[in-house]
Model the fold of this input.
Amino acid sequence: MRWSREALGFDSRAGGWPLQQAPSFHCAALAAAGQRTAGGALPSGCRLVTILWRHATETRRAQTARTVSRVPRISVVVPVYNVESYVATCLQSLARQSFRDLEVIVVDDGSTDASAAIAERFTGRDRRFRLLRQANGGLGQARNRGVAAAGGEFLAFVDSDDVVADDAYERLAGALDASGSDFATGNVLRLTRQGTSQTQFLARTFVRTRMRTHVSRDRTLLADRTAWNKLWRRSFWDAQDLRFPEGVVHEDIPVTLPAHLAAAGVDVLAAPVYHWRLREDGAQSITQRRLERRVLADRLAAVEHVRLELAQRGPRKVSRWYDASLIRDDLRLHLDVLEQADAPYRALFMEGAGRILASVPARSYRQLSALDRVKWHLVRRGALEELLEVMRFEREDAEATPPLRRLGRYYGDYPFRTDRPRRVPGSAYRLRRLDEELALASHVDDVRVEGGVLRLRGHAHLGCLPATRPGAQHTTLTAVGAGRSGPVRTRLARSRARTWEVRRADLSPWRSEAGVDRSWSGFEAKLDVRVLQRRGAWVDGTWKLFARTRAGWLDRRRARFALASPALIGAADLETSDGVRARAVVGADGTITVQVSTRWAELRGCRLAPGGVLVLDVVVVAAEAAGVRLRLRRRSDGLLLHHPLVPTGDSPGLLRGELPLDELHAVLPSLEAWAAGTPGASEMWDLSADSAPGALPVALAERLAGAEWSRGGQGTTLTRTRRGDAALITRRVAPPVPARRQPTLPPAVRTQEPA
Done:
């Protein structure tokens, strides 16, 4: 019996089997085919019908699954108000998320520019995007409107001038699926026209990944007060009846900190998930409007709300930690601008801050400097005129005012120290390790390599203390390996540089800006890299150089140096043996490190072959040199490209890679380059040899740096990074600037409907 698709009910015009007819045609086909054969097997036609029946059933299940998946796992709420210059980049970062099962709810909060029109274009291109409109009601109201319309298992919030990392929600959702925590939070980078950098107030919070932690066990989570770097479990959000306050700024604080307290577990991811923009177009974000009275009033209200929540529901130690963070962070932001504020602002601050500080215990001030303790004491007493005088002293006279020594202790010689009617306690003036007057100031004037030995010249001194004779302040330099308990390791470290004192005429009192005699604070040091060996053998690692200065019973250490010139930043190779590479690196942050590597890679030659192919000769010294690939990593977004490295046969470890420049130039520009406001600008690609057990940065000799190649109107430059490694810089022709009222989408991966 012959079977045809049409006889079985296949609709060729519809492109598939009509599911509602599948049971009937299956039964009809079986009846037409007759009974089983004598051997018990189905006739060949019946077997075909069975296969077709299974196919129809699987198709029906797949369509049902697609229908169910229309309720996405993640709902992202994006309030929009007059951000036409940034909103396209923001929404594009959401459209290209590696986690595809999401919906984006854009809430137009009464924008008067082209922001809503840009968002509407996304809804037409990608069915995952929805646009809601409302009259201007503020960020809190727009977020609440979006939450009400959201149907996902998880909730996320994004500010429309920021950018979300490509794999952000894949990481956050993966963490929640694995741990079962109530919400996950990720690291935040600051986004400027120069690129991205670590957000400093969150650096300690996200130094490492922790799963199912809690604010009562992890004090650093008190700094994690933003809503937009998190993925919230919707069931937790509803169970806690979380809702953003409306008509105010600082909406995040009254939500995130009580949520931290109520959560059974929180996942903390060290990987960056969010790029927080610093507005550089003249428009100010909420965090840049500290001098507005409304911003101050809302901050004070948010702080009092959280303190009440912690007092009622939280452990006492968390309340103490929060009080200490208020003085150090929240209220400090407004105290620092008090001199520039008008009279009503000052009165509001003194009244509100004084009311809050009245119930803050004395122990919360212990980790502050003496000058800050004096200022907060005056705030508590409502002494505005005295407070402004102390702030003037700090700005104009503090650097040139040496500390006082009484009974073996040092005190700051600040205003009102001996003024009894002012009633500032003497303990507030006592100097401790945190105070600038006793802090170690270490400077480096010259760093060079001579005879394979690292030589340094500079000066170091303790605060305002003088160094009028040899030995008054004794400085040593020590190389300390990576690890915890830095102060202990610094004391016990044996890898010390040979250091000797030097008299510095330029630090005499009549030539010093502070007017303090530090003539004998100079030093010179040399470090032979062989002191880093362990039992005569080389060990891979990085050693950081510490300065340690002692003056009597005072003993201070510091790992960062003030550099006399930016020209000191860079890397230099030190002399070693046995095929080991050692390199001294002076970082832009003032750190000086020595890196020792028994596995390394170096670029020995480069040339442009016919056809625009860049030929790179790389020496790889590694235990496993087989299967090595040349890896290019784009700095702006971490995009990876790989090209094979094959042995040349000329010498052991010498490999050759071929990189077609046309392919490199054809790579779409990163979204981060557009987000930084520099479309068409240069992109930097770091080179490394991808080899087990890990990638090796490709070192570059200075003689090869600066080579340039042009092809098709686009240029490529080989450059040497500050760490001495090889990198390629590609430059593209900038596209025309779009009209202000008709901004275009970035030329990244265009929005598409999910498959």
Observations:
- Residues 439-597 form one domain.
- Confidence is low (pLDDT under 50) at residues 1-53, 59-69, 733-755.
